[in-house]
TrEMBL record:
Sites where the protein binds dUMP: E86, F87, Q88, R89, E97, E98, S99, G100, R101, R169, R196
Active-site residues, record numbering mapped to chain: R196
Gene: thyX
UniProt source species: Gulosibacter chungangensis
Oligomeric and partner information: Homotetramer.
An annotated GO BP: dTTP biosynthetic process
Name by which UniProt lists this protein: Flavin-dependent thymidylate synthase
Length: 242
């Protein structure tokens, strides 16, 4: 059994299902004062009245969070396994990941791009990251490639010998790619984004690992297409999840 190994320096994020629009926030919020309403049809953000935009801003600013929960977004994500372990620390989403017990994992491995910062300086809680030297960049790429190739060869050797996939996978490194579906609402997504992106103007700046930030950047762009007003007021209010 032989497989051609692929090395990547990117992640894949796709929005595969969405029931989310800015009007969902208004629909949920106004039940408090109006009572039962029919769910709004999809509308262009430009059709929202100034008063409606003001209500969304008020809810975000004063952190009335539950109206932002009445929607749903499902993302498909391909990324190295170490990124998924960071994802799953956020207990605010539903996850379904491909299983190394039930299928042979594909030989696709993450290797940092040359522009990825490699040097960490400072004390815990005050780290800063800086570009690596050309020698460090070359070393990281060479070692990641060599260990990935050796690990996958060991994995195939055990599979060829009839060893169960759930046992053979134990030799695989954390930079092997996996895939999963992630489903969450906008409030949960804003919490995730507030922690996994470093954006100027954030009231509480966060310093995420670059690889999960790459996922967060794509997720935010896709979400902003669905709920542009909510995304706008999230930013103008310091990126604090309501």
């Amino acid at each position: 059994m032989t497989e051609e190994i692929e090395f990547r320096s990117d992640v894949t994020v796709e929005l595969v299902r969405s029931q989310a629009q800015d009007r969902d926030v208004l629909f949920a919020a106004r039940v408090s004062t109006i009572g039962e309403q029919s769910r709004p049809e999809a509308d262009d953000a430009e059709d929202l009245h100034k008063r409606d935009r003001g209500l969304i801003n008020f809810l975000m600013r004063d952190r009335h969070g539950t109206p932002f929960e009445h929607n749903s977004l499902t993302f498909y994500v391909q990324a190295p396994i170490f990124v998924f372990r960071e994802f799953q620390r956020h207990r605010i989403a539903s996850y379904n990941e491909e299983s190394g017990r039930y299928r042979q994992l594909q030989p696709t491995f993450y290797v940092p791009a040359p522009e990825r910062n490699l040097r960490q300086e400072g004390k815990p809680g005050k780290y800063e990251f800086f570009p690596g030297t050309p020698e460090q960049t070359e070393l990281v790429a060479a070692e990641v490639r060599a260990t990935s190739e050796a690990a996958y060869a060991s994995y195939l050797k055990m599979l060829d010998a009839g060893v169960a996939r759930e046992v053979a996978r134990m030799v695989l490194p954390l930079n092997i790619y996996s895939s999963m579906y992630v489903t969450m609402n906008a409030r949960s997504l804003m919490n995730f984004l507030s922690l996994r992106r470093l954006v100027p103007g954030s009231q509480f700046p966060s310093f995420p690992q670059r690889e999960i930030e790459m996922c967060a950047e794509q997720m935010e762009a896709l979400w902003a297409e669905q709920m542009p007003i909510t995304a706008e007021v999230f930013n103008t209010n310091g990126r604090v999840a309501p």
